[in-house]
């Protein structure tokens, strides 16, 4: 099977920097034929591509002359953050993504470019216009031809991945060029073709290959989003493994855990800090908080407490995303829409305050520090590597009344990971070059993860009707990848289950 190649340019030595390549073999031999990229994300923390790219070295470190299109699975920065560098390297092709992602992507990139490149308004505008021209929004479940030429063809189809709004996994149909397929069709297949039955299957196996890139897969009970359904067919499955070695809390359990943390905040009058990705986690946690407030503020035991709960979202980006999320209701799940029909506003409730400007932010940090009013602060970044959450941590992490709640994955080398690991043992963390003792209580609520857990990942593979002959496990730390590999092999014994290395093709 060598009429196409798969290469991994990121998210093979960790969970960030997602970037995968699917290209056709050139009919001229040796050279790369035309290809596509799936995602082009930032590295975070200590993670690298293994070839040069890292959080501090973001230039594209692989050839792109033959890359004709980029497919974006979802708009998290570790999947799209290097798009400006891809354009700088000379990429001229279209950017395919889902319709909601096309609305959200310019917001993410505007932010990324202001942080990483320039604050010059005219330049930012110009860049965003280029992005908007390149964007090709695709409805879910619809085939789109992306490459069609003498070396063969690649078509793609997006399917809902249930990870964040607009997230997709990508089905790719790779087809050999027609003269090649004629010569490959064996006498046996041709004979079957003459007999009618079986010919389609025979031809298909010889000339076509279905590659599925999972992107990030959501958990079945993610707030707001419908769960992902497995594809009908995958010959090769490239699957993430962020939580390949873990099982999440159930829906009820995670809700109770969050409620307990908030109740503790009421007892000791401390703040609850929730570091969260501006997009996805923030909206989902707001959705859950609205639901807790709604259910408990009418309860006679809790009435006074919960009706007064203050929730602060301190991130201009998160506020803009939340607004866009509200506009994208057609993509919400049935439960969320039901709440809307009963007159509730899951992402815009009374106790919610948003902090926008930098001045407001400083005021908010001081207020939260100086007044003993229990409140919940949600701010980026999700792994505490920069962003406004850092100022809250600096102000409050040494206060034992503070509760820090991690709801997402913390990559190696990020302050979030240090706090999560050493906080419960009375350790310290370095923030902006200074050392802070961690006296706050640290909680990790796995149930709110945007990622499928081990069971969900196995189910995703198991439920593919025409199961994959090859499974490539990516986007996880070593332990997670190895454990998922073992379990995958056990449920799909006929498949080759492998952990690819950086840049490796197959
Ligand atoms: Zn993601």
Molecular structure report:
- The model is unreliable at 180-200 (pLDDT under 50).
- The protein is globular and about 70 Å long.
- Helix 17 links the parallel strand 20 and strand 21.
- Helix 3 (99-116) packs antiparallel against helix 11 (316-327).
- With 506 residues, it is an alpha/beta fold.
- It has helices at residues 77-80, 83-88, 99-116, 121-134, 178-184, 187-195, 199-207, 251-268, 281-296, 303-307, 316-327, 334-341, 358-370, 389-396, 415-422, 454-462, 478-491; strands spanning 4-10, 19-25, 32-38, 67-71, 95-98, 135-138, 144-149, 152-160, 168-176, 208-213, 236-240, 271-275, 310-314, 352-355, 375-379, 403-406, 428-431, 434-437, 441-444, 470-474, 496-498.
- The chain is built from 17 helices and 21 strands.
- It is 35% helix and 22% strand.
- The chain has 2 domains: 4-246 and 450-498, Metallo-beta-lactamase, Chain A, CATH 3.60.15; 251-448, Rossmann fold (3-Layer(aba) Sandwich), CATH 3.40.50.
- The strands form 4 sheets. Strands 7-8-9-10-11-20-21 form a 7-stranded mixed beta sheet.
- The longest helix is centred in the N-terminal third of the chain and has 18 residues, at 99-116.
- The structure holds zinc ion (ZN).
- The site of zinc ion has 5 residues, from loops.
- This is MBL fold metallo-hydrolase.
- It holds the Pfam family RMMBL.
- Residues 181-198 have a biased composition (Polar residues).
- GO terms for molecular function: hydrolase activity; RNA endonuclease activity.
- Residues 22-251 form the Metallo-beta-lactamase domain.
């Amino acid at each position: 099977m060598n009429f196409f190649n798969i290469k991994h340019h990121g998210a093979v030595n960790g969970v960030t920097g997602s970037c995968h390549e699917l290209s056709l073999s050139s009919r001229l031999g040796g050279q790369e034929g035309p290809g596509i990229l799936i995602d082009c994300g930032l590295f975070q923390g200590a993670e690298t591509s293994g070839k040069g790219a890292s959080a501090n070295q973001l230039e594209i470190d692989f050839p792109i002359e033959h890359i004709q299109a980029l497919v974006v699975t979802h708009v998290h920065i570790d999947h799209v953050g290097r798009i400006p560098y891809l354009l700088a390297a000379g990429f001229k092709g279209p950017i395919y993504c889902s319709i909601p992602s096309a609305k959200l992507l310019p917001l993410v990139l505007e932010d990324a470019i202001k942080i990483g490149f320039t604050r010059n308004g005219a330049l930012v505008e110009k860049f965003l216009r280029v992005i908007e021209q390149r964007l090709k929004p695709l409805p879910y479940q619809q085939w789109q031809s992306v490459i069609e030429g003498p070396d063969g063809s690649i078509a793609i189809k997006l399917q809902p991945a249930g990870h964040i709004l607009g997230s997709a996994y990508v089905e790719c149909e790779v087809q050999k060029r027609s003269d090649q397929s004629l010569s490959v069709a064996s006498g046996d297949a041709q004979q079957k073709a003459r007999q009618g039955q079986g010919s389609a299957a025979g031809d298909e196996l010889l000339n076509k290959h279905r590659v599925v890139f999972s992107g990030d897969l959501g958990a079945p009970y993610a707030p707001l989003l419908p769960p992902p359904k497995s594809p009908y067919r995958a010959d090769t499955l490239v699957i993430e493994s962020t939580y390949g070695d873990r099982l999440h809390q159930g829906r009820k359990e995670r809700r109770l855990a969050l409620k307990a943390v908030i109740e503790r905040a009421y007892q000791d009058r401390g703040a609850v800090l929730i570091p969260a990705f501006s997009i996805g986690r923030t909206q989902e946690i707001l959705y859950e908080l609205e639901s807790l407030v709604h259910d408990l503020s009418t309860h006679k035991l809790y009435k006074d407490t919960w009706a007064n709960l203050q929730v602060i979202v301190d991130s201009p980006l998160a506020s803009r995303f939340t607004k866009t999320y509200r506009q994208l209701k057609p993509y919400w799940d049935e439960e969320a829409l039901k709440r809307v029909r009963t007159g509730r506003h899951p992402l815009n409730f009374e106790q919610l305050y948003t902090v926008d400007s930098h001045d407001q932010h400083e005021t908010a940090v001081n207020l939260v520090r100086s007044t003993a009013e229990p409140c919940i602060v949600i701010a980026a970044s999700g792994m505490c590597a920069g962003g406004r959450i850092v100022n809250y941590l600096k102000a409050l992490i040494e206060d034992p009344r503070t509760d820090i709640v991690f709801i997402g994955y913390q990559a190696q080398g990020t302050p979030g990971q240090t706090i999560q690991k050493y906080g419960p043992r009375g350790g310290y963390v370095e923030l902006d070059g200074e050392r802070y003792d961690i006296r706050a209580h640290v909680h990790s609520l796995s149930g709110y993860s945007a990622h499928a857990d081990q069971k969900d990942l196995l189910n995703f593979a198991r439920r593919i009707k025409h199961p994959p002959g090859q499974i490539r496990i990516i986007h996880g730390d070593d332990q997670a990848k190895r454990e998922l590999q073992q379990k995958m092999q056990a449920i799909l014994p006929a498949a080759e289950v492998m952990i690819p290395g950086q840049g490796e093709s197959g």
